[in-house]
Amino acid sequence: MNPNDAHALIESLRGGLVVSCQAYPGEPMRTPDTMCRVAQAAARGGAVGIRAQGLDDVAAIRAAVDLPLIGLWKDGDDDVFITPTLEHALAVARAGAHVVALDGTSRPRPDGRTLAETITAVHEQTTALVMADCSTFDEGLAAAAAGADLVGTTLAGYTAYTVKGDGPDIDLVGELARALDVPVVAEGRIHSPAQAAAAITAGAHAVVVGTAITHPTTITGWFADAVNGANSVDKDNA
User: Residue 35: is its pLDDT beyond 90?
Assistant: First the structure.
């Protein structure tokens, strides 16, 4: 991607909502056609970009939705499973992703390549940009130094050495936004419009929301738990 196109794509995400359209293995919605329809619905609702998982999903959404597409490929049982190798990254780019999201943590990658080597190869061999999914401030700094075009807080709370809170790590978003010249994307446990707005206020270039928009099983669970909790209170007071 030439610098002008890259700048235009990144600017198109500024201050906006990216919707992550993913389903877990074994779920009824885990088909490329279903995820494509979810992405189309998100676009109608005002999303400025889509994040999608899996080569078939990426290809289907790229063909049907005219928005910047962040693609990834979850594979393997190792700690590093978000687009874990260069081969995965190249495949995601060739499937149609404008941006390849990959693990940007300090953990060893399965193919033995460094993060910088992987990012450089993606830039040299494809037209895609790279988003590094990080979990700490130092990882964000290192990912930017390694050449990442965007740095995400995606894995904050999802590595063995970080703490998972109830909501997004807004403090990390702010710290990275103040320290980096590359755009910072807030992602992870953003479950309400207020939390999404707080991330933008903290300095996020864009906000990614997935579960709270595109995962009916989890959303249903939130409401079911609340209703069941209210029923328990009523019974206790009876």
Answer: yes
